[in-house]
């Protein structure tokens, strides 16, 4: 019996094992940020909404955990999550918004229609900050602790069931 | 009622496939297995019943029987009839039924006409074919029943993916299935030959038309699929190294290697084990492709409807057939005696080199496709794309194409350098001159430069096998080879030209304004709504012209389907002999200007003309081979007759 003749079968067994393993693994369809556990990159964004301050790294270093919400007025799921952000705000959470590729008049219209849960909103016109913190879509919500370290990433819109989870993550970040 | 008849026919098919498997297997043990006599009839009846089941499926789709779940989820009463019918196989269940139907028809055909191999080998082959079919029947009947009824009939169907409402795409999957099934026949022949230790030139000759047929269909399928992606998706690209595309390319690469090595086995009785191995690999690749596409295992970011149960079932079949065949290979291949030896500098030598290169390319594509699967096991997400496939593939494609230019000129067994010095020097001279000329043509990537140079050299070299011959006496199969090799040169030229010379423009244009692209003048006349049978669209009218040509209207659309709601871009193409103008209309900006995306792609059509030439070469080769086989049969019969006369005398 020649060993070389069995090599194809061995290679195939390797593939079958791998495929079988992968099939039984739960599928995670989201791309998680590589920045979790790391400090926020330096940034300083101009205000996205007239009459409200912009956002910068310094805002996240006051010792209090905050939510960083990536959103846009052109994004439909952002409308869906607006009431739940409002509830988080009512629970005393400080939410900093970053509006992606947006215009002041559109931002103002959106906030007038769906409420404004943000303490400040920065304008990220070229998605630079969004990419630097490892967010691959809109909306996404990050929990940032008092030292500016990214503690948690929530991908997609915040739904009713996510509110207690986010509150707990904020508690843990204290 | 008709759906139930179809289902009953499927169950009978499964029973017959089991009979075919058992009969064929038992025939290997005893001298006169009683079931053995049933193997061929079982295959034939199974083919007829499978066709009947598929006809029933077509019928319920044609009349939009909404009590059948598959019709309700995939069709719509408002759809044009042709798309109702193509909807029958434009979904998982229906396409599996089509696959197994074609497979049963192929089994019936070999059971009817193939008499050249020893009967035991034929029975083992049909047993293997029955075994493979049985798994697919089980898959259909146990987990993907296409005839399932709804408890309450639906009021209206849920439509068909509008992207699939396209005449080209309606026939794209069946084309690929014909290819896959052809390879399944080759696989069964290989298993049969291996089990009965009959790896002979006759086996190669019997298998070859099936491999060639499969290869022609795969070539056409890939060519059509590439053109579809090019004009339907509106991205202007023709190949994306997407797992689904790779899934169709891998069996093609293996089949290309197989048909060349089968030629060596048929003509020179060499490469026995290697040909068997390729027979197994070629079908494995088509099964693997099916698994990758349908299990959703590789679509991690863009999730399709993923069904782990379905994936597990196909993986189980994969392990059963491929694992089984490779185990038989491990056990038996050692006892297949070595074939005839040959010198390196010979036709066989060149073909072996081509085989090794093709296998290496196959390995590269396979590795690139499966690599994300491997790294994901370690929680690392990667996606492998053109930066890997293009340069790494080229390392092997370039030497393969160089040998392809020379190989057909070599004689079997061994050849002399002296005899070939002239043609090789001519090819080398052409390549050097072209390389220099293309270099001064403009700024382009290294791969495009190599591609243009090689394409020119190959185009000339592919006709050299005809030199000094009486063209009327050249065998048809040789014409097939010339045509296919020339097709490779043509396709390569198209690819390199597209990569080197494409000009792109993204512009916001108000009606009446004119844009320049290359030497084209493109004027946006108007943008108007238009209505189709199940869509409405915004259609841009572009008046395009160049030089003194009469202006022509080109009309790209942005289409909205309503069942199900989906937006698609319908690119508009203007084809000229020297390239294509490709236009896509986008959204309207607030100031009333329209976004237009325009490309001028010189000689891009040559990619698909090349594909067609390759496939046509395959068709010529089949005609040539079958003709010789028939002639051989007549001669054999005549010899046998004379013998019996002599013996009688």
Describe this structure in words.
The complex is a heterodimer of chains A (174) and B (649). Chain A has 174 residues and is of the alpha/beta class. Chain A is built from five helices and seven strands, in the order αβββαβαβαββα. In chain A, the strands form two sheets. Chain A has a five-stranded mixed β-sheet with strand order 5-4-3-6-7. In chain A, helix 3 (104-114) links the parallel strand 4 and strand 5 (118-124). The termini of chain A are far apart. The model of chain A has no long low-confidence stretch (mean pLDDT 87). In chain B, the strands form two sheets. In chain B, strands 2, 3, 4, 5, 6 and 7 form a six-stranded antiparallel β-sheet that branches. Chain B has a four-stranded antiparallel β-sheet with strand order 1-10-9-8. Chains A and B meet through helix 1 of A and helix 10, helix 11 and helix 12 of B.
In short:
The complex is a heterodimer of chains A (about 170) and B (about 650). Chain A has five helices and seven strands.
Throw out a few tags for this protein.
heterodimer, A: 174 residues, alpha/beta, Glutaredoxin, five-stranded mixed beta sheet, two-stranded antiparallel sheet, 20% strand, B: alpha+beta, six-stranded antiparallel beta sheet, four-stranded antiparallel beta sheet, 10 strands, 63% helix, globular
